[in-house]
Amino acid sequence: MDQKLSQVIKNDNIPPEMMDMLESLDNNAQRLLADHYDENSNYFRRAQPAKIAERFGGFPDKHPLLYHYTNLNSLEAILSSRSFFIGRYTDMNDKSEKQYTYDLCKSALKEAGASNKELQEFNNDISNPIFDYYLMSLTDNKNSEALSRYGDIAIQFKNQSIQDHLAIKHTPSYFYKRLDPGDGLVYPLKVLYDKKEQLEYVNTVMKAWLIAFRNKDRDPNDMSQIKNESLKALELYSQCFKNSLLYQEEEIRFVVIKRLSQEQHIMPDLYFNGKPKIKLDIEPNMIDTVIVSHKLEGKISSIQKMVQSYGFNNTEVKLTDLLY
Prior knowledge:
This is DUF2971 domain-containing protein. This protein is α+β, with helices and mostly antiparallel strands.
């Protein structure tokens, strides 16, 4: 038996039939099972949601202020309606959203020597999601030249305010026990663009998935659990891994992940121009500052009046720190 697994179970009173089952596993599965319980292992650090959150969470203590780049017309629409519409992942500017990560996964499986049957099994696993998700794109860079292509205005939000307002609306008090169809979880993620690090995470988890699949008949319970853990980790990766070519966006995104109905129907708040949306209600105290580019320098006074006309009396409109 693998030495590390022996250390894990040495103080347990293991029934003979379970010991026989553990010894029937191949060496890779025995080591994986040991890593599954080892908080310091690469597998544990890269598969457990709490550990993934430690690495990729865009939490308020590190990113207290976030900025959304837009244009003047959209700013007025947000202020007048006191609402912000958050789009589904399928409607992002980057149409490879989510698929990018799963393409990395399939490449990792092929490099690990997965058979066509195993590749098909993985395709089956990811083709039956139980969650749907929506993404609010922000950054903690208030002077981003790269993001100015989305508009000449950066709206400043408090990270904690977004979290609080979305969670109150979408996350039930019983979420730690279950999520019913339509219920959701809300969390901020800092996007990773470094492909080398992406592959380190993906390769670890896909190797675990493949080992678990190959040993599921010998140890159905443990291997099914590891397989499901791996798939959940990949779902989180797909929400925060992006093509390295987009690194200048420096994106921090709020994710609203909602439970699908049994028929896998999506459950948005509304449809806008035919597209599903989540609605974030905006209150005046949520926006402290509106930053405008030099193109709008001559309109600062009129923008300030417009902002105040919608009741955002304490919101300051000011010029970007950029030199041009």
